[in-house]
Design goal:
It is built from 3 helices and 4 strands; from the N terminus they run αββαββα. With 119 residues, it is an alpha+beta fold. The strands form 2 sheets. The chain has a two-stranded parallel sheet. A two-stranded antiparallel ribbon has the order 2-3.
Length: 119
Amino acid sequence: MKPKTIVTALAAAATLVSLGMWVATGRHYYTKFEVVETVSAPVDPSDPLAAAGFYDGAKVERTVRRPEFHLGLLPTPKGVLDKNALSVLSLTAPAWLLAAGIHFLEVVRRRRRERLARG
């Protein structure tokens, strides 16, 4: 088997695995290691405002952070070496760039051989 075929097959396999992981982790656009969400919370009975009836009928919400991994299509890095740089794009792009480079070199070699054969 030719190297270009092997590299292209590996790039396709890496893409399929990355996309499968993306679907399995929730299909988010950006990579996340922490989820921040607003949830309804019960009123604290020791709160003096609650005892005075200030929260009657009002919805009390609290912001909660929890660790949860979502592989995104695109990275969300804050620096060069950041864990959020992991994404479908960053996992598959190097393999496809290598495959494209190998195909490009194959075309250049073929044209050079044809030119030399013509004289």
